Amino acid sequence: MVRGAGTALNVLTVLAGSGLGVLVGDRLPDRTRSVVTDGLGLVTLLVAATSAAAVLDPELSHEVGTSAPVLIVLGSLLLGGITGSLLRIEDRLEGAADAIRRRLRPSTGGGERRDRFVEGFVLASLVFCVGPLTILGSLDDGLGRGIDKLALKATLDGFASIAFAASLGWGVAASALAVLVVQGALTALGAVLGDLLPQADVLAVTATGGLLLVGVALRLLQIKAVPVGDLLPALVVAPILVHVVAAAR
After folding, report:
1. Residues 69-93 pLDDT 10s
2. Domain limits of the chain?
3. Helical residues (DSSP H) of the chain, grouped into ranges
4. Deepest of 17, 44, 65, 172, by most Cβ within 10 A of its Cβ?
5. Distance between CA atoms of 15 and 135, rounded to whole angstroms?
6. Cα 172 to Cα 14: distance, rounded to the nearest angstrom
7. Which regions in the chain score pLDDT beneath 70?
8. φ, ψ at 185 (rounded to 5°)
9. Long-range own/partner contacts, residues 114-117 (CB < 8 A, 24 or more apart)
10. What's the whole-model pTM score?
């Protein structure tokens, strides 16, 4: 199997699902769209919980000690959040979404439509790009281990994009670009690293990503607009802290 095939499949399912979702969504009342979004928020919480549970994995505890995994995740979120807020990643994501919207539909002006496009792009990008299947599947693809995980993710994302696009519109389709960039980069990383990436690093990133998905779920459920984009650097900080703690033991 050609490296990168899993990401290509994922991009296609997001585009196809988004097109179908927009087609269906225009025929649905606002109440139904709201229920769909709430359902997605609850499912995202479930996925987040299973991902965050990686913090309890014995292999991570063996590497850094029994009390350190939670502190590593905490430190990753704090340091990553500070870095992301200073870099204004959330604002840049929204700006990128607005730029894509203007390029694709330059004649569309309304503020409400613009906000809907941006929200669709940002939320869908975060859901599709932050999670264990994104990381593990892309690395497996790059390592030449096959695309089984990404094929599963592509299927899930395809159905999720239908629901997202039914509620949030064409911004969800634009998130296929984020999937291409993020998963493509991780696939390339896997190809470069070979089998050198420690399992403890992957577990720390997975657990941290699970908490980021909780933030996405809170936004979908309209409980709190957590700036998840600003927290994304935590995914880079997590493996660094694993090595720092392991070296200090």
Report:
1. 999 999 999 999 999 999 998 888 8
2. 5-248
3. 5-25, 30-52, 58-64, 68-87, 89-104, 111-129, 132-143, 148-168, 171-193, 199-220, 228-231, 234-248
4. 172
5. 21
6. 8
7. 1, 101, 104-113, 131-132, 194-195
8. -65, -40
9. 116/168, 116/169, 116/171, 117/168, 117/169, 117/170, 117/171, 117/174
10. 0.75
